[in-house]
Known about the structure:
Elements: H1 15-23, E1 30-33, E2 39-40, H2 44-48, E3 57-66, H3 73-95, E4 107-110, H4 111-116, H5 127-137, E5 141-152, H6 158-185, H7 190-200, H8 202-220, H9 230-251, H10 257-270, H11 274-287, H12 306-310, H13 315-318
Parallel strand pairs: 3-5
Antiparallel strand pairs: 1-4, 2-5, 3-4
Helix pairs in contact: 3-9, 3-10, 5-6, 6-7, 6-11, 8-9, 9-10
Amino acid sequence: MKIVTRKPPRSGKGKGYVLNDGLELCNGEIIAVFDADARIGPDFLKTIIPYLNEDGVEGVQARVRMYNSNENLLTAMQEVEFAIFGNVILRAKDIMGKNAFLGGNGQIATKKAIKEIGGWDGFAVTEDLNMSVKLIMNGYKIRYCGEAVVYQEAVPKWDLFFRQRIRWATGNLETLFVYLTKIMNAPIPFYKKINAIEQLFFLLLIAFVMVGYVVVILQIGNIMQFHFGAPVVIGVLSTFAFFPSLFIGLYREKALPHVIIYRSIEYWAYCLYLLPLFFAAFAGMITRKERHWAKTHHSGYEDMDEDIISGSQTDSEIV
């Protein structure tokens, strides 16, 4: 094992720069990326690598779960969030033959493809999303492997969590603004262009859904009246867009019915954080003068229950 250390002034610039340094030292043809808090089972690589045998597939994303989901409500909601993302969104994309997206932790890609697209963009706030877009624009396919699971530490405190999500949202918006025109002009089929664009608009869609709920609540509670029928329409559309995927995501984790119900209500309230998040992300993106990597704080769990990694803990207990 080789440990690469970046010292000032090269340190603190972003994960993409570190990955590019590591790439130059790698001898293998398949590159696996894990964060410092990642925990995987012994069969992880045996499970996920065969997906690269399919023609055109150059990247694969594993299922992400939280090993400290029972710590508090915030960590539990992050487990629910990733259950929706993995069990519903990425799984559906994979079944329909659409591209998944690399999530930074628990991803693999071929060294050949990484080098062909110029490596990771060190300046990008979300280098994983950036790489996903570039792979798709070059005609490559990204699969999702739900059988391979990587466990990571959910952020347990709201201030640290919000800082992490501002970085994610900023990276999403930057990638959207930088690559929207490039995606439309890329020499790939139109449906692949739509596939990439819809992923970049996903967070904005969820934020719009939550705005719809707020409008309906204000209307019903006579707090603020709107002289048009849009609030009701938005509320209905928001319900159909939000809760079915939430129920399915938890159901596929084998959560009990009462767990699905109360976790769904909690998650709805949790998602309201998206409203101030996007204002903060827009402000940060516009006013930032230089790149500073807002590293996610991790506490570390040395005494973590190994039953979680081995899979012997039941899904309903984790959710």
